[in-house]
Structures are given as C-alpha cells and as structure tokens.
C-alpha cells in the first residue's frame, strides 16, 4: 500500500499537533522551599503557582493535609469550590483567589490559624491529561504572656511559689532560678491547651530563705528565640512563719531569760534583806544585853 506525499504530510502535521498540545498541557506546581510561618489567630497564605503560568480556571485544584491519611482542606473543581468532604475544622476558613487562577496562582488562604493547622500540606493540580503537586509546610507560632508568680502558702518548711504563662505554641520550658541565676529544683511542668490549641504552662517551686530572697521564673521557647521572665522578692518575715518552731523557741528562750534574770534579782534582794535583818537582830540583842547588865 502506497502513501502519497499529501497523506504523509497530514500525518506528520497531526503528530506534531498532538505533541504540541501534550506539551502545552504539561505544567509544574511550585511552592516555597522554606516553611511558611504564621502567628496563631492571624490569616496566612500558602503559596502555590503553576509553571508556566497557564490559567488554572479549567483545572482541578486540591489542597490536602499530609498525614497518615490525606485530609481534604479545599477543593476547586468544575469552576467552583466543592468542599462537601472538607475536614470540619477547616470549614469556612479556606479560600482560593478566583481572579488569580487565570494567572496560574493556586495559592490557598487560611483564616484564623490555630495550632492544629501546624504541619505539611499538599497543593495538587491536575487536568484531564496531566497532574502535578507541591508540598508546603506551615509552621504555627505564638508567644505567650508575661509569667505571673503567686504565693500558694507554706510547705515543707519553705514557701510554695507557682509560675504561670498562657498562649504559647510550641510548648515552652519553665525554669525557676535564684538571685545568682542558678536553677532551682522544682516540680514538673503542668500543661493545658485552650480552644485554639495554645499552651498554658504552670510550675511550682518551694523556696527557702536566702540573703536576698529574690527568685525568678523564666519561660523560654528556643524555636522562637523568645524568653519572658518575672522576678519576685519575698519579705524575710514571711519565712519566719514557715518555721513556727523557731518562733516558739525564741519565745521560750526569752521567757526563760526573763525568769532567770527575775530570779537573780529576787535572790539578790532577798540576800540583801536577810543581811539587813541579821544586823538588826544583833543590835537588838546587844541592846538587851547591856540593859539587863545595868539593871
């Protein structure tokens, strides 16, 4: 079977057209190399772009949380958002940029971020002929409040102090220190999370009387390079109440000293009085003796 030049030319043009169309439909999905940092409670954009910057209006755009099982964060399909199967915690908190889709911008905006949003995401874009994806890591951060120190009372011969700070993410470390900056042995750090997943930390310590009675609670988050600390000064009189036996001993000692001094004074006066009485009796006896002799 012979093929004419015209048929051969048509076949070549058809192959070239298919190759060109296939090449045009191919694209890359690009995201940031470094983690995206966001502050809890604020909004954040997770960048994602197509290369070349072809329109994504007719494409499918899917955002997932990368976990043991991928969880749908946002779905754009058939020219509209289709979030029926979206993870409930993201409901009402995600959107694309409709006008930017024409420029190949498939970035996701996440509203009111919380600690549970922290972690890896996948931006997945596909057409009927091609698909590609890119991974983005979202790093949530939150700097907590200034530590608050409270006196709980007397315990184990000392004073029990508690330090508390709220609103941290990730979880910070709590350290008690003396006036020289040396760490003090303290109890374990108690942790609680609020509705946004932010940490409240609390740690107790029992302190004894020192020369300065100055103590510091330091809360630090190394990943954020953040340190907050509060210093407290405790009056020395408060430590005396922590040792009631010392007060009792002091009172007994004072009373004993008063008794000893009182007894000594009384004894001295009694001896002096006896001496006076002894002299008076001698004079009386002498007077009587001479009077009888004269008679």
What does this structure look like?
The protein is α+β, with helices and mostly antiparallel strands and 295 residues long. The chain has two domains: 26-141, Immunoglobulins (Immunoglobulin-like); 148-241, Immunoglobulin-like. Helix content is 26%, strand content 36%. It has three helices and 18 strands. The chain has helices at 5-25, 236-241, 244-294, and strands at residues 28-30, 36-39, 44-46, 49-51, 60-65, 71-77, 80-81, 94-95, 108-110, 119-126, 131-141, 148-155, 158-168, 173-177, 190-193, 199-207, 214-221, 226-233. It has a six-stranded mixed beta sheet, with no helix packed on it. It has a four-stranded antiparallel beta sheet with strand order 12-13-16-15. Strand 12 and strand 13 (158-168) form a beta hairpin. It is rod-shaped and about 130 Å long. The chain starts with a helix and ends with a helix.
The stretches of 5 or more residues where confidence is low (pLDDT under 50) are 16-23
CA-to-CA gap between the ends?
193 Å
Taken together, the total number of domains comes to: 2
Number of extended strands: 18
Please name the CATH architecture of the largest domain.
Answer: Sandwich
Strand proportion, as a percent range, falls in 35-45%
- Which class best fits the helix and strand makeup? alpha+beta
Going across the biggest sheet, name each strand in turn. Answer: 2-11-10-5-6-7
């Amino acid at each position: 079977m012979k093929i004419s030049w015209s048929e051969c030319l048509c076949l070549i043009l058809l192959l070239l057209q298919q190759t060109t169309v296939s090449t045009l439909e191919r694209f890359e999905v690009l995201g940031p190399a470094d983690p995206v940092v966001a502050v809890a409670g604020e909004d954040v954009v997770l960048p994602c772009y197509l290369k070349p910057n072809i329109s994504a209006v007719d494409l499918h755009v899917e955002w997932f949380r990368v976990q043991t099982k991928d969880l749908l964060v946002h779905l754009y399909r058939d020219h509209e958002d289709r979030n029926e199967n979206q993870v409930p915690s993201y409901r009402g908190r995600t959107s694309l940029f409709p006008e930017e889709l024409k420029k190949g911008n498939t970035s996701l905006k996440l509203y009111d971020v919380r600690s549970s949003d922290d972690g890896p995401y996948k931006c997945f874009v596909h057409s009927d002929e091609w698909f590609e994806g890119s991974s983005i890591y979202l790093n949530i951060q939150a700097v907590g409040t200034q530590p608050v120190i409270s006196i709980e009372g007397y315990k184990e011969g000392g004073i029990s102090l508690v330090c508390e700070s709220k609103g941290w993410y990730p979880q910070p470390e709590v350290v008690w220190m003396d006036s020289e900056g040396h760490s003090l042995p303290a109890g374990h750090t108690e942790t609680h999370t609020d509705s946004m997943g932010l940490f409240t930390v609390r740690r107790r310590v029992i302190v004894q009387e020192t020369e300065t009675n100055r103590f510091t609670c330091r809360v630090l988050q190394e990943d954020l390079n953040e340190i907050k600390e509060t210093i407290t000064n405790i009056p020395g009189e408060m430590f005396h109440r922590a040792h009631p036996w010392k007060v009792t001993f002091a009172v007994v000692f004072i009373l004993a000293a008063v008794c000893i001094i009182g007894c000594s004074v009384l004894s001295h006066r009694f001896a002096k009085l006896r001496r006076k009485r002894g002299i008076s009796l001698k004079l009386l006896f002498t007077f009587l003796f001479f009077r009888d002799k004269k008679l």
